[in-house]
Specification:
Helix content: 40-55%
Strand order of the largest sheet: 3-2-1-4-5-6-7
Distance between the termini: 32 Å
Structural class: alpha/beta
Radius of gyration: 17 Å
Length: 252
């Protein structure tokens, strides 16, 4: 229970890594708000946590819209009185080769991943600075190192590592740490979309990935959630401005 009674918001909390993070933080004692455009999905995660004896709520909103983010965070603080943990996980993919990528493909991915993390962090830090305490985690990716067909996604994820480093410098004096987690391949619905784009069955895609991972298995959402739970705990109070790869092998 290293996060007992800490208040956390997880964006993109309705599925995949976000849902696994909600479950993990709640299991560690946090009061968790699942923030997602998909209110039904967020409500399902919140209900699951409550059924297990935890504290949770669902919040609907668009992370790329300032008014929406402000309203969501006000809702959480009105319910629980404070905000101590923010996990910027919300994301989408719109993969394509550069010569085929549209403005909409580019704008949507950058707005959700990068602008969304900027807005959520900016608004959340207002509460955290007053408390002189906070934990912010950005979900980057090994894709930040470059990945064919993902110019938009790679750029957004690289931007998140720079944002984490900069906010760590700005906010550290207020008792707020900011770090990034960079997963490698994780078996999620987003990975399933990539398999479809490549014309592969999901099972064949997983097997092709597994053979190239040093630990010879495919990553699961829980693997990432475990690292996030450490970074938002007091055990990680001297870890700040770092990018932690969760990829079954070395990266960077």
């Amino acid at each position: 229970m290293r996060l007992k009674d800490r208040v956390a918001i997880v964006t993109g909390g309705a599925r995949g890594i976000g849902a696994a993070t909600c479950r993990k933080l709640a299991a560690e004692g946090a009061w968790v708000a699942a923030f997602d455009l998909d209110l039904g999905g967020a409500e399902s995660i919140a209900a699951e946590i409550k059924a297990a004896g935890g504290q949770a709520m669902a919040v609907s909103g668009d992370v790329s819209n300032r008014a929406s983010v402000t309203a969501a965070m006000e809702q959480v603080v009105a319910q629980w009185g404070r905000l101590e943990i923010l996990v910027n996980n919300a994301g989408v993919i719109r993969d394509n080769l550069l010569h085929k990528m549209t403005d909409d493909d580019w704008d949507l991915v950058l707005n959700i991943h990068l602008k969304g993390a900027f807005l959520c962090s900016q608004i959340a830090q207002g509460y955290m600075v007053q408390q002189k305490y906070g934990r912010i985690v950005m979900l980057s990716s090994t894709g930040a190192l470059g990945n064919r067909g993902q110019a938009n996604y790679s750029s957004a994820k690289a931007g998140l590592t720079g944002l984490a480093r900069t906010l760590a410098l700005e906010l550290g004096q207020f008792g707020i740490t900011v770090n990034a987690v960079a997963p490698g391949f994780i078996a999620t619905d987003m990975a399933r979309q990539t398999a479809q784009r490549l014309g592969l069955t999901f099972e064949d895609f997983l097997e092709s990935v597994r053979k190239n991972v040093a630990v010879r298995r495919v990553g699961q959402p829980q693997d990432v959630a475990n690292v996030i739970a450490f970074l938002v705990s007091d055990e990680a109070s001297y870890v700040n401005g770092q990018t932690i790869y969760v990829a079954g092998g070395p990266r960077g």
